[in-house]
Amino acid sequence: MNLPAFGLGTYRLTGQTVIDSVKMALELGYRAVDTAQIYQNEADVGQAITESGVARDQLFLTTKIWKDSYAADRLIPSLRQSLSKLRTDHVDLTLIHWPAPGNGVELREFMGALAEAKQLGLTRQIGVSNFNIELTRQAIEVVGKGEIATNQVELSPYLQNRRLAAFLIEQGITVTSYMTLAYGKVLKDPVLAEIASKHQASVAQIALAWALQLGYAVIPSSTKRENLASNLLARDLRLDDQDMTRIASLERNGREVSPAGLAPDWD
To answer: Is 102's pLDDT higher than 90?
Structure first.
């Protein structure tokens, strides 16, 4: 299954909150769900999927390996634990969550272990998250060209990451945008509000449509049914060249997430 352009994010959601979010999303037609070991909600996501009644082969499941399990002898066992929590024998995509340069495990070691997980059938595709251009290059050298399905990075109208995105597209790697709404900051943007008014759409829909139109995948999250449904409608929006140019002008290097010890030197 190709990487879907639109999925559900589950960052910061746990317990009944994430169970309800996933079940509502699946009822509304979402078929991709993104989680991670560090979110501590894989078991909840697995429960929600089971209770939803949606067949496993209709879903695209992504999880991410946390830095504690990057060592070659830990990565695959940790992924097997994730599969057990998710109640499945494989995920569709497994990512290295952060490059964590000070972690003491070399990139070659964890990318090699990730490639082995794919060979074992534990994951259909592999990729990275929060990698800069140089680290993505190094990852390609380890696993081979065409093997990295995506680089999931923070990307919003305020942080457009153009150099990295151009490099990834040139390499045939899908850009997955997380935090496309910049923790909700873009929802108050007057330029986006004008574009939204013109299209009789919400500001969130405009930001998501912008990313989709650039060819990126998006994984917005919500705990409200109306927002989950509304976000999905971004797929049907078409922004014109003037809209796209106006949004391009909002770039301000507005990064929201860059944890010390985990993040690379950003491009």
So the answer is: no
Neighbours of 73 (CB within 10 A): 9
Q: Output the CA–CA distances (angstroms, integers) from residue 134 to 131, 141, 231, 255, in the order listed.
A: 8, 11, 33, 19
How far apart are alpha carbons 63 and 238 in whole angstroms?
A: 30
Spot the catalytic one: 30, 39, 70, 216. 39
Judge contact between 34 and 62, C-beta under 8 A: yes
Residue partners of 192: CB distance under 8 A and separation at least 6 = 157, 186, 203, 206, 207, 247, 250
Residue 39 annotated to the active site: yes
Domain ranges (residues) in the chain = 8-182+216-223
User: pLDDT class for 2, splitting at 50, 70, 90?
Assistant: confident
91: β partners: 123
- pLDDT above 70 covers a percentage of the chain that reads 100
Confidence band, pLDDT 50/70/90 cuts, at residue 27: very high
Beta bridge partner(s), residue 174: 150
Topology of the domain covering 8-182+216-223: TIM Barrel (3.20.20)
